[in-house]
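Lecture 7, part B: from sequences to assemblies.

Below are the input chains for today's worked example.
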Amino acid sequence: MAQLAWHDGAVDDHGLVAAVLAGERDAFRSLVEREQGAVYRACLRILGRPHDAEDVAQESFMMAYRSIGSYRGEGSLGGWLMRIATRQAFRRLGQRRDAAELPPELPIGAPGADPLAAMLAGERERAVRLAVAALGEPYREVVALRFFGELSLDEIAAATGRPLNTVKTHLRRGLERLRPLLGSEVAA
Amino acid sequence: MTRRPFDPRETGSAGGDLDQITDELERYAHLTEGEMPHGLADRVMARVAEEPTPRRGLLAWLLAPFVAGPGGAAQLVLVAGTMALAVLAVVLAGQLGELFDNRQTGTSPSPTVLESPSLSPTPSLSPSLTPSPSPSLAPTPSPSPSSVAPVVTPGPSDDDEPETPEPTDDDDGGDETPEPSDDDNSGPGGGGGDDDSD
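Predicted structure of the full complex, as structure tokens:
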């Protein structure tokens, strides 16, 4: 009865969490299937490499499963999960930069384009990634959740536990700090 | 295009210079809307199968009734009751701990009160002392007013009614009794010693 409900999307986040905590692993599968696209895309936008993005997305789901009991229900489960994923992705990016910064194998967004255009597109993508990653907290988190995680400002406010106006301020300041970093790229 | 295209009004400003930045971020997000890797959910669930069932965190459990809607009322009562019991337990534990500490080290306060009566018999000691001095010191009533008075006076004081005030002073806090009693009241060493001997 309840098992059918979460597959239909009729169960809210609290019901889903309660089912997972009750040992219903299928409930968690429905969460994974519902959120995997957004989580993977956010990781890809932060990391720039499909393989790393998939790895981090998988790790984020595992982390969410292990700590789902700490979900307090203040925001959507998707927002809570996205916050985990973006944090994990930035952490991976930091580890990668500590090891060696390598350019992505191919530009993500321009497969099959001519080599020069592909190279330019790749450079621009890389500049955006690094500029956002270079932001300090909490600006980086808010910008990443908004543009890479596709969350609304209301969802970000709920997920982070900050007032909406604070989130707006953080976003505006984050964008202002990106301007000198991306200004030349944008002008180009 | 993302699920939610950015609207400059979201930041509460008119946009302006930031439009270029937000456009760049939107374009980047649009370009990276790549294909999903196949089987991601299956791989996640395969790993989940090896994991134990997660447990609800304490903080989440405590806050759940406040966040959850109608179903949380019973749990709210339960949480409130639990919190009240916890507070009561902490208060009782604190009092017990204080009592225990007093018994261990600072017995001085309560026993002092109890022992001062037991020491009050010191007058009985003074009589015991008095017998010996009284005969010998009886002839020396005059020295009693002298400087020796505080120490030796007890004897003659028993003999002389008018001088009894001094022994009574001793009883209350004079020279002989005072030392133990003072120790009892203030000196932890003296009080402790008495307690240990008790």
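Note for the exam: Chain A has a mean pLDDT of 83. Keep this in mind when comparing with the next example.
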